[in-house]
Design a protein that fits this description.
Largest sheet: 9 strands, antiparallel
Helix content: 10-25%
Number of domains: 1
Distance between the termini: 58 Å
Number of strands: 9
């Protein structure tokens, strides 16, 4: 890092429109492209701690029935379909090489009330609050059933999602459906490394951050909450900024994802670091500073986001934040970002939803049994 480059950053230059300059991007931590097929059965559902696949289909459904038994049958059928790798469908041959296929499902704030089960509703399972910078569209917001299907093959992900949605067609209707993709380098469409601050699944803190525990109802223990946001990026405006401006907005170097106080992506963020002129190295309105646990009473989330590009309908980030409780995770972090994040000038949330994803199951059981057999 040159002195002049650091000086520009420390000066808080956030309005530059010069063409991006500098060396090529340095790919440090790449996506974990293991080919090992995730286990379906277990304490937790696959698709949460599972390393992100290349493709994802995220579907929000609304119930058209008020009968719990009819929805239970769908969850049982989904369990049989996914655990059996769709051998009972006309596309069975396609899934002979499943490409790390996972399917993860959960329930939205309106699910239990719609089935006459409101007494089971946890306080954390509520619509996300309104944030001042949001420009939400109904077609991308809410939902009573969450379905996430991921795979390293786009055809497998899309086909599996369609089979699952079709299996639920008698008792649900599609509210919204978003396809996403990820890069082996973990970069999003802004060219930034995404998820650097994530915890490794083996980290003891991971369980505390991600999995719902004693503070939640028994039916949710082993599950997780996911906040889903469809964030449209103004990529033309972003790409018109200089690299230095982009780095000051984010709080990390673009070439390798290192915090502005460091040299490697994994270097700790030092919010107290100052230049020789006693200016903050990581700007006060940077995304990294405002989202850091130290500025949010320790609040953390586990990002598992994907890019999307819908052509004329825009492009951006299918942001998904997993946590044990949104009231101590996504919500306080987003409230702070909503007030002063420089990144708000280049992004807008068009969709927003919260779901409680159910615990996993063992052979002979089904995902959702903790709700329906309680």
């Amino acid at each position: 890092m040159s002195v002049s480059r650091r000086a520009v950053l420390a000066g808080g230059v956030l309005a530059g429109t010069a063409a991006a300059v500098g060396g090529g991007l340095i790919y440090t931590q790449q996506r974990d492209d293991t080919t090992e097929q995730p286990e379906f059965y277990g304490v937790h559902q696959a698709g949460i701690a599972t390393p992100a696949q290349a493709r994802v289909e995220v579907v929000a459904l609304d119930l058209t029935t008020g009968k719990p038994g009819e929805v239970r049958e769908v969850f049982q059928q989904w369990t049989a379909m996914v655990s059996g790798m769709f051998t009972q469908t006309a596309d069975a041959d396609l899934f002979a090489t499943p490409a790390r296929l996972t399917a993860t499902w959960g329930i939205g704030p309106g699910f239990l009330p719609a089935l006459g089960m409101k007494a089971m509703q946890p306080d954390g399972l509520a619509d996300l609050p309104a944030f001042s910078k949001d420009q939400l569209e109904k077609r991308w917001t809410g939902g009573e059933v969450f379905l996430q299907v991921g795979a390293d093959d786009a055809v497998i992900a899309a086909t599996a999602a369609r089979h699952l949605v079709a299996a639920a067609a008698d008792v649900t209707t599609v509210r919204w459906w978003q396809r996403g993709f990820s890069s082996p380098t973990r970069r999003n469409l802004m060219g930034q490394v995404d998820g650097t601050a994530n915890l490794a699944a083996a980290d003891p803190l991971f369980d505390e951050v991600v999995w719902s525990a004693d503070t939640q109802p028994e039916w949710l223990r082993g599950g997780s909450y996911v906040a889903v946001r469809r964030i449209r990026m103004d990529l033309d405006a972003w790409n018109a900024q200089s690299v230095e401006t982009q780095e000051a907005v984010i709080g990390r170097f673009k070439d390798n994802g290192a915090p502005l106080n460091g040299t490697e992506e994994t270097d700790p963020v030092d919010l107290s670091a100052q230049t020789a002129d006693r200016e903050l190295v990581i700007p006060s309105t940077s995304h990294v500073r405002l989202s850091h646990p130290d500025n949010n009473r320790g609040a953390r989330i586990q990002r598992r986001s994907f890019s999307y590009d819908d052509g004329a309908d825009g492009a951006g980030l299918l942001f998904m934040a997993w946590q044990a409780d949104p009231r101590t995770g996504f919500i306080p972090i987003q409230a702070r970002l909503d007030v002063g994040d420089s990144l708000n000038a280049f992004t807008v949330a068009q969709g927003s939803a919260l779901f409680a994803c159910l615990p996993g199951c063992q052979p002979g059981g089904y995902v959702g049994e903790t709700v329906f057999e309680a």
